[in-house]
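Incident review: delayed structure delivery

Summary: a single-chain prediction request sat in the queue longer than the usual turnaround. Root cause was a stuck worker, restarted by the on-call engineer. No data loss occurred. The affected request and its eventual output are reproduced below so the record is complete for anyone auditing the incident later.

Affected input:
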Amino acid sequence: MKIDDSIKKTGGLGVNPTQTRAGKSVSKPSTSGSSTVSTDNVTLSSQLQGLEGQVASSSVFDANKVEEIKAAIAGGQFQVNPEKVASGLISNVADLLQTQTA
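Output delivered after worker restart:
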């Protein structure tokens, strides 16, 4: 199987170094030597701002659960259920295959 680096083949797709996170702007001096300063601004729609607030207020993971798992691993009490892991992997692959055919 040949691995193809498609990023190198897509000319003209670059990342603008002045892009910033939502609601922030960046200023940089002009390269022409003049005293003008350009600014780039990013604004979010009200729907995206609401989603941003929801994501910011919720935690990505449960820190207490992580500590419990760490303690169980350190104490030799953590056990992996291979059937549950295999079932989860099969479910994820099935979802990926459905997305590719859609």
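Verification: DSSP finds four helices and two strands in the chain.
Action items: add queue-age alerting; document worker restart procedure.
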